[in-house]
Amino acid sequence: MNYDNIVKDMISSIKLMIKKEIGKARFDSTVRGRVIESLGSGKYKVLINGKEYTVKSHFSHAINDVVEIIKCNGSWSDLYVLY
């Protein structure tokens, strides 16, 4: 029995498990978007990677402004403009 191979196999298995769990992890991330419409009440429609989303903001933005958006817990339905 080759212990080096056993250890290498264990390490490979652990790496796969970690990668799988990280893929399911929920965390905040930022994306860039372009304002395409003001919806009033601090909400805007933005274009992100060719798709339209409604985002909330405490700032005023003009049409075609490029904004940084936080995607809370990895959710595309919970978006806020950072600036």
Mean pLDDT across residues: 93
Shape: rod-shaped
CATH fold-level assignment of the domain at 29-81: OB fold (Dihydrolipoamide Acetyltransferase, E2P)
Largest sheet: 5 strands, antiparallel
**Approximate helicity band:** 25-40%
The number of helices is 1
Which strand order does the major sheet show? 3-2-1-4-5
> Which regions are unreliable across 5 or more consecutive residues at pLDDT < 50?
none
**The CATH fourth-level homologous superfamily of the domain at 29-81:** Nucleic acid-binding proteins
**Helix and strand composition category:** alpha+beta
- Amount of beta strand: 35-45%
Radius of gyration: 20 Å
Question: Termini separation (Å)?
Answer: 59 Å
Under CATH at level 1, the class of the domain at 29-81 stands as: Mainly Beta
Write down how many β-strands occur, each being a DSSP E stretch of 2 or more residues: 5
Order of helices and strands: HEEEEE
* CATH second-level architecture of the domain at 29-81: Beta Barrel
In a few lines, what is going on in this structure?
The chain has 83 residues and is α+β, with helices and mostly antiparallel strands. The chain is built from one helix and five strands. It has one helix spanning 3-24, and strands spanning 29-40, 43-48, 51-56, 66-71, 79-81.
What does this structure look like?
By secondary structure, this protein is an alpha+beta fold. It has a domain at 29-81: OB fold (Dihydrolipoamide Acetyltransferase, E2P) (Beta Barrel). Helices cover 27% and strands 40% of the residues. The protein has one helix and five strands, in the order H-E-E-E-E-E. A five-stranded antiparallel beta sheet has the order 3-2-1-4-5, with no helix packed on it. A hairpin with a 2-residue loop joins strand 2 (43-48) and strand 3. The radius of gyration is 20 Å and the shape is rod-shaped. The mean pLDDT is 93.
